[in-house]
Amino acid sequence: MYGSRKDSSDTRVKYPPSPSPSSYSTSSSTSSSSRNRVRTAARSVAGVFVACFTPPEEETPHHSRHSSSAFGGSDAFSSASDISGASDSTEGKKRHRSIYNTVRNDSPHSKEPGSVKFSMADIHKATKNFSPTLKVGQGGFGTVYKGQLPDGTLVAVKRAKKSMYDKNLGGEFQSEIQALSKVEHLNLVKCYGYLEHEDERIVVVEYVPNGTLREHLECELIRLKSSSILATQLSNTLISGFNGNVLSLDSRLDIAIDVAHAITYLHTYTDHPIIHRDIKSSNILLTEKLRAKVADFGFARLAADAESGQTHVSTQVKGTAGYLDPEYLRTYQLTEKSDVYSFGILLVELVTGRRPIEPKQELDQRITARWAMKRYADGVAISVLDPRLEKSDANGVALDKILELALQCVAAHRRNRPTMRRCAEVLWNVRKEYKQLLV
Ligand SMILES: Nc1ncnc2c1ncn2[C@@H]1O[C@H](COP(=O)(O)OP(=O)(O)OP(=O)(O)O)[C@@H](O)[C@H]1O
């Protein structure tokens, strides 16, 4: 079974603390005429998807990695600590301090928390010389190992592959480290330190034990079983409670709210807002209690400085096919609303269980968001609900509201998309109503 949310030790962030009903009118009390307007909008958005999407993920290198801009000072996170979920609890701080103290003691090259330089000996010890049995994943950056620090803290050790390093990893490595080291939030994967040694580039981050959201949506147990390199991951995930059960809509809503909080935190990072740029289900890691943690800041980039009058950052297009903001694709101008777009795609993925692009589906269903928006516009949203979920009244109502929000997130023009903070508020209210319908 998945871990229960009811556990009193679950420190899930409640946000906002006391929502005012009027501020949530979009989702809570949509009249039939306004719902019709939304449906009309859904029809036009569904039309836009044809032009927006790049070829199927399987056929396209899903992104290229290059250097990103370097980040400025290192003291930004305290200024955003009012955002729900910033890990400023005493317990969190104590744990954090103990980790860094331990690491500092172990490392002669130690630096600021979050950017501690490990030695190669530390890494070899933590990963048992990169033991294949501790390999937990493989991504664009390289190989990921589970490791353990001397104080017992479990870590994920991300070892860059040589080809990535040859291709200009220097900038990306710096980008990932600098972004990670400055953020601290319950729903963001913490960075413990890094290592640059000859041609090795290694990042040490918080180990999140329960697989990725994509794996959960696919209930990938059978695939994992057949994969020898993932045998360790299988045993790890079994221990942590992932046994192939379907994620309930309740849990999916919780995950969406966690992700919305994490991105809100990044975007409202007062001194140096950060655009994640690669929000997708395989970058959402889950804890035993199905709390979501957003990972992979390899593409993270500073947002434009509002005070300077700049509203966007001009950049080469990066991200993953299916999640990419069409306005960013067209203009190369990146804003926080590009993350909002990807988040809208993620919402559709959460309720349908499908990947953003499904090359094996019927033609009209290959672009999942377009298909879902069309069904929503036709008043038959329930037909896109993940078939593994019950078609109950509560699920139907929540589905409608989540799709309504997703529709706003994927608006063709970024000015029409909500902020991530607004998304969190709307989802908070959807969850509240959902729970009321369940009792
Ligand atoms: N912090 C972590 N804790 C536990 N497992 C992790 C962690 N980070 C990554 N993994 C595992 O390693 C896999 C590869 O992760 P990685 O971030 O390198 O690539 P990715 O996000 O899957 O792909 P890409 O780098 O192409 O975006 C993940 O799918 C996950 O299974």
UniProtKB/TrEMBL annotation:
* Source superkingdom: Eukaryota
For ATP, which residues are the binding ones?
162
Keywords, sorted A to Z: ATP-binding, Kinase, Nucleotide-binding, Serine/threonine-protein kinase, Transferase
**Biased composition, Basic and acidic residues: where in the chain?**
1-13
Chain spans, region Disordered:
1-40, 55-115
Q: Does the keyword Transferase apply?
A: yes
- Which residue windows does the record flag with biased composition (Low complexity)? 21-34, 67-89
Q: Pinpoint the Protein kinase domain residues.
A: 130-429
Q: Which principal EC class is assigned to this enzyme?
A: transferase
Q: Which SUPFAM superfamilies match?
A: Protein kinase-like (PK-like) (SSF56112)
EC number of this enzyme: 2.7.11.1
Reaction catalyzed: L-threonyl-[protein] + ATP = O-phospho-L-threonyl-[protein] + ADP + H(+); L-seryl-[protein] + ATP = O-phospho-L-seryl-[protein] + ADP + H(+)
Q: Which InterPro entries match?
A: Kinase-like_dom_sf, Prot_kinase_dom, Protein_kinase_ATP_BS, Ser-Thr/Tyr_kinase_cat_dom, Ser/Thr_kinase_AS
Q: Which GO terms describe its molecular function?
A: ATP binding; protein serine/threonine kinase activity
Q: Which family does it belong to?
A: Belongs to the protein kinase superfamily.
This protein's name: non-specific serine/threonine protein kinase
Q: Which organism is it from?
A: Lactuca sativa
